[in-house]
């Protein structure tokens, strides 16, 4: 069973707990510990079957078994529902028999639910365990000491109502913009305490080493003493023991001490400590002991300045995360939590917002361990809890999560879903007094407003209030997320009053049902990642832009190697706490193959890590061999102190003309024949036959032997018009030329078929002003395409406002018709714009069509991508035809903003006059 250190603790109440069956009796003389008996499985990966029936929907009225924890919809029961579509008649009845150990006699025993959706009525041996719990995402417990028969079978019965009897709970939880589920979806356990116990611990551990623990006690019937010892996680003691006397009947005590220069917790340096607590009688008899984990760190919101951790201003780079898996709903596991956190850190994120409810406790454990800043959120999506039902939920949220150093803020609902009467409740249970946010507006000195335009973002970061949007660049259908981020981050990444922001959202929330992935139309496919965590194109863009190590010279963002390179790379350290001397730098010299081969590493080595402090600029010196210029490309990789690659750049030393010269060899023998009719000129070189129309100078047909190749109707201008004014053809050495001149936007076209079968196309066009597309188009039947191999920046498609994150190499991908986030879910998507293409081989049912660029900067457009329903502003334009050779491509909008509301990279292409390009084609069977 995969557990974090605190997973065992999370499945019980406060105190040390053992996961699984009851813990063995304490060793002689050792303080008694909390013992935990799991009644469900520990998580969605490790389940236990309970008896179950649902009252409505699929399999209604049928007693069966269901794995717990789980959401019942995902196991064939009830019905699937998205927010707002209430189903008050749908309830689930659970039954489970269990036998608590006889050794628990004299203990206080609680039945603990980590969460159940949404109202939970609990009975033990036919007797109510307590009031119906309302609120689907929160831990609750019932004291069942008097209801249990120790050492004998007991019956647990639970009725879970999918919708709440309290309308404000439905408003806050069930009418939100997310999937609704039902069931016991987090673990259930019995937790047995000694009669005198440490019930809860709330810690305030500051960066200056001061430590305070507010300890809630119960069952103290005589004078006692509470003793503590701080330790590192490896067991090393930090200072000596410290203690406080406890009077008979006391329900609380506070312990304080000061640690000398403890290692501090940040997302970059997730140093954790633990405190061992022991409650004993005044005579020294041990009553109870427990362990709590924490981190020394101080969080400040400095009004009109920024968010500070340990006295250092930080910038949050994060995503909004729902707890979600297509086959599990909201049920999860440490394995899936670790997967999501790893993917966020792979994107160089340092923060996550819990949208729109508190996560599983083990997710927060892993944020503590691996290093992510967290915004922990009370549920509420444009509607709120009433105070009566909301106050206990705030208490449950904060009491469970208070000791996580990863949590920087509490969120009181989302987008108007806050009840201001609850704002001061958070501080009642949090001795750290973390700030409370109202995501969508300004509160606690932080403006969290959502989905600002580029211009309004510029105004906000130049203002007097800290700006930290808890949602921005909505990622519907591949629009937003990475698209537009480069412009936004130039504003948000370096402004004094910017505290960063959170992209919506981490994953496409698609339910696996009826053999398909259901995203509920356009309401759920918002992810940077697919539903099974497939990496979409924005993943790599975000990784690049949010890397804490950035080239200081803007020229290094281009994949073509700067001519001024002197074996050093100037770098900017955008870490908040980490010196680059703790990172690892490595380089490779690469040779790119011709079609059909593999990229070869010619040589590689390590570079000495430069001493560059956070926020400073320096340089890394690469110890390249003397013949480094003979390589095709240089790759530089940067790995963080934990061994995770945080940056990687590949620069081409060779340029498009170099690769064209390798592939396209002029014929030395042979000749081309030309035949002219009233409507066309037919050129023949061996098995290659090319037909050019006399009416417009466009390619009308190609044959390779007896096989037709359907590339045709080009070059047609991607924008504007062209009227043929002159047409001629003539022999040219071993080849034959067709020359076409035009009036209009296209000015000239020259075709030349060489005796070896290479067809050269030279074209010129003139354009000024703003254009979505610059270049020429062809037609080709999409249904005949099977795949693509190409040398260019890939493997993902690009937009004008999402050019970062792709890498030059030789890439191969099969044809697919993925509509990003909506259908197909095959990545990288086949269709769209491909950046800086040097050569490409289109595999078709008619053979291979090779395209070679003689100049740099060619965008190869392949067909028009499919789009999901109702894309709103998340659209991109494509030119006519379906294969294009382009000098300028279009940007993409996002759900809330068309391209005109985004930044400079989202503007149209400003044409500069005359354009010329040479492209070679070859057709092989």
From TrEMBL:
**Enzyme Commission number(s) from the entry:** 3.2.1.23
Record protein name field: beta-galactosidase
Q: Which Pfam families match?
A: Glyco_hydro_2, Glyco_hydro_2_C, Glyco_hydro_2_N, LacZ_4
Name the UniProt key words of this record, in alphabetical order: Glycosidase, Hydrolase, Signal
Return the InterPro entries for the record: Bact_Beta-galactosidase, Beta-gal/glucu_dom_sf, Gal_mutarotase_sf_dom, Galactose-bd-like_sf, GH, GH-type_carb-bd, Glyco_hydro_2, Glyco_hydro_2_cat
Into which family does the record put it? Answer: Belongs to the glycosyl hydrolase 2 family.
- The Beta-galactosidase domain covers 570-628
An example GO biological process term is:
lactose catabolic process
Write down the species.
Answer: Amycolatopsis pretoriensis
Q: Where is the Glycoside hydrolase family 2 immunoglobulin-like beta-sandwich domain?
A: 197-297
Record's Gene Ontology CC terms? beta-galactosidase complex
A single GO molecular function term of this UniProt record: beta-galactosidase activity
Q: Where is the signal peptide?
A: 1-27
Superkingdom of origin? Bacteria
Catalytic activity reads:
Hydrolysis of terminal non-reducing beta-D-galactose residues in beta-D-galactosides
- Limits of the Glycosyl hydrolases family 2 sugar binding domain: 64-194
